[in-house]
Prior knowledge:
It is built from twelve helices and 14 strands.
Amino acid sequence: MRIQGFLATAAAAAVSLAAAAGVAQAQTTTFDAVKARGVVNCGVNTGLAGFAAPDSQGVWRGLDVDLCRAVAAAVFGDAGKVRYVPTTAQQRFTALQSGEVDLLSRNTTWTLGRDTSLGLDFLGVNFYDGQGFMVKKSLGVKSAKELDGATVCVQPGTTTELNLTDWFRANNMRFTPVVIERLEEVNAAFFSGRCDALTTDVSGLASVRSSQGPRAEEYVILPEVISKEPLGPAVRHGDNRWADVVRWSFYAMIEAEELGLTSANIDQHLNSQNPAIQRFVGATGGLGEMLGVDNKWAYNIVKQVGNYAESFERNVAPLGIQRGVNALWTKGGLMYSPPIR
């Protein structure tokens, strides 16, 4: 018992030292390192349509990808200055902690544990989601409550895995997990019939379902949503200067939608008399100087990437997902930007 206690104490100390070293490094080098390198290293999904996936030409596209591009537009005035680093669910946190990536924009759920013990800072929610189940329509299942005794495909190292266990236990149901790390492999296992159900965020299920083309109609997403999954970008804990840039790059996309500014019309508003728009496009206020970037940082984001609605419609809407809670607060949703002033 004493040996076990010693080992546990030593392991905890090692984690604390690593976290402290990461924070010290983040405070002194991330923003400057990105500027010197000339590119943002952005951790993304290995391939999830609508959020982060390369198209047929190898160009990365998606809601999370657009956030990476927005940060690059703010820092460099060029949304193309991004190096995308595909990470699995288990690799993503280590990639950020180690400094392999500057930013994690990878459909990652913001939780207390991740925000504290993993040494991460979440900077907002770019997609409000929840966990669900998908089954083959021919199974005849209409509700997740009918999955007692089912085999369920799930990825390890995710909130999905924990929610799955909690939900089945709370409903006095049994299940057999089929745990597979890589996204492509867990999906393949489901479609090959190894599992009765596939579970992940509802947006992820819609993405996976759409990948089946004409066969998509053979699968159904069950109505139950069993968890809250606020997905958002993260940086290393204590990385305050860099966190400010990433946070406000995201909020600029929401603010632009609130102001009615789009990639197509923002040039027409450069001489607007609206004080909020004057500040946004960099004509007044000196907001870029506060962040350490050009005063046209927000203009560059909208001109090159678009506002949040443009990104959503371009990437997520084709999956058949409605804005819902991801609509602006003025339209019954939860999307809301603090004042950019």
